[in-house]
């Protein structure tokens, strides 16, 4: 059976995976895959299109690795799929700070957990991996952070 082909506007959920293992795991979660569509000019992302629980999902994978790969991937994805309403960064969370599971077992972050950032005050809710430093007292010293998400809808 040939995969269904939808239009760019049919996709409302954007999903970014930066590592190939994340892309492979994400692919396994799709209920069905859709036929590929052409990307916008200067968009070098690789896209996997499909459906999950009735939602049309775009899974984006960067063509180029490095600092800012996720931001570039999301920007390109929104340029190509302009009807996206929800964005997810799906990954292994290798840089999420976690207290020792022996000291605070209910605050331990494990593979499979969902981590949601929340902007507060002048803080955007997300710290770029090289913009924070764990001090000897265990507290995270923030040198900088990413901007707050834009106001939506």
Can you put this structure into words, describing what you see?
It contains 2 helices and 7 strands; from the N terminus they run βαβββαβββ. The protein is an alpha/beta fold. It is elongated and about 55 Å long. The chain has helices spanning 20-29, 69-80, and strands at 13-16, 32-33, 46-52, 55-61, 86-89, 132-134, 140-142. The protein folds into 2 domains: 8-89, no CATH class; 97-147, no CATH class. A hairpin with a 2-residue loop joins strand 3 and strand 4. Helices cover 14% and strands 20% of the residues. The longest helix has 12 residues, at 69-80. The strands form 2 sheets. Strands 2-3-4-1-5 form a 5-stranded mixed sheet, sandwiched between helices. It has a two-stranded antiparallel ribbon with strand order 6-7. InterPro entries: NLR-like, Nucleoside_phosphorylase_sf. It comes from Aspergillus keveii.
